[in-house]
Amino acid sequence: MSSGDGSSYSSSKISKKPRYSRFTQQELPACKPILTPGLVITILISLAIIFIPIGLSSLSASQNVVEVVDRYDDVCVPLKPSNSVEQNDERIGFIQDVKTNKTCIRTFIVPKKMKHPIFVYYQLDNFYQNHRRYVKSRSDHQLWSPKDERNTKLCEPEAVNSDNKPIVPCGLIAWSLFNDTYSFSINNTPLTINKKGIAWTSDRTKKFGPNVYPKNFQTGGLIGGAKLNESIPLSEQEDLIVWMRTAALPSFRKLYGKIETDLEANEKITVVIQNNYNTYSFNGRKKLVISTATWIGGKNDFLGKMYITVGATSLFLAVIFLLLYVIKPRPLGDPTYLSWNRNPTFQY
Ligand SMILES: *[C@@H]1O[C@H](CO)[C@@H](O)[C@H](O)[C@H]1NC(C)=O
């Protein structure tokens, strides 16, 4: 054994004993509540009293939302009976051909009176805007400042055009901008859609520059989606701003515009859709959604149901405990219940 191991520690003059403090000795004042039956029952009942009304009011708010969802990607392409693989090829051919007429007319009846503002959304299903390479394919510097036009290194493969000029806005997200359009009318009277103010104010004022104009955009080989008007700065291209706030889940809705008038029940709405966007190549679905909103937002029963479930469970447990407490009461702190008092053969 080599000299010094172990012995050098014991010969050390420095004491390892911690200095006394109430913290190191764990003598700080502490709250040690005793969960008496009365306390537990009170807590459970107060949970029920808080949760059930919140649940009921959010459920009723959600039920008051009027929502119309219309899937149109399947009906807005010419359908010829054939097997599904061929049919899909045919649809892709239809959507990629610039010469085909993509206009599609859909009608629906307003089920209940809808108060303005009425929100118009497009919904895409099976579209992974959260894919890693897609999410990263943008340049926030370039979006904000005209000086950073060349800052496109994250934007591959949509960074520069064939003449090596930077694409503004660069990247896959901007390139794949949604390009279906909708126009609404009631009895041949057009219904205006307000497309101002659909993006977040913070995005408009802090992320998308008022002096940045689209350049060389969508001029490459494969067209990904909508084109942008080169005379409008990015801060006013609200469809782009909405699209570039990427969705976290593969089914998502994005705001298309707002209808600023009330719609009466049983009114017949006609929508002329330009079915441009290619979701057929990846089995995506497209839906048009119009919806009113309340204080909880759009239609969503889940939150209310969850609150009611938690409240009802607490109430149920409170009742059970109360019954047990009344039918079979047990004195608190009775030492005869201790194991060593109950079972005299078990002793240390
Ligand atoms: C719309 O986007 C698709 C790709 O999804 C593209 O092929 C088509 O050319 C675009 N059409 C218009 C009118 O921008």
Automatic annotation (TrEMBL):
<keyword id="KW-0472">Membrane</keyword>
<dbReference type="InterPro" id="IPR005045">
    <property type="entry name" value="CDC50/LEM3_fam"/>
</dbReference>
<protein>
    <recommendedName>
        <fullName>ALA-interacting subunit</fullName>
    </recommendedName>
</protein>
<keyword id="KW-1133">Transmembrane helix</keyword>
<comment type="similarity">
    <text>Belongs to the CDC50/LEM3 family.</text>
</comment>
<dbReference type="Pfam" id="PF03381">
    <property type="entry name" value="CDC50"/>
</dbReference>
<dbReference type="GO" id="GO:0005794">
    <property type="term" value="C:Golgi apparatus"/>
</dbReference>
<dbReference type="GO" id="GO:0005783">
    <property type="term" value="C:endoplasmic reticulum"/>
</dbReference>
<feature type="transmembrane region" description="Helical">
    <location>
        <begin position="306"/>
        <end position="327"/>
    </location>
</feature>
<keyword id="KW-0812">Transmembrane</keyword>
<dbReference type="GO" id="GO:0005886">
    <property type="term" value="C:plasma membrane"/>
</dbReference>
<feature type="transmembrane region" description="Helical">
    <location>
        <begin position="34"/>
        <end position="56"/>
    </location>
</feature>
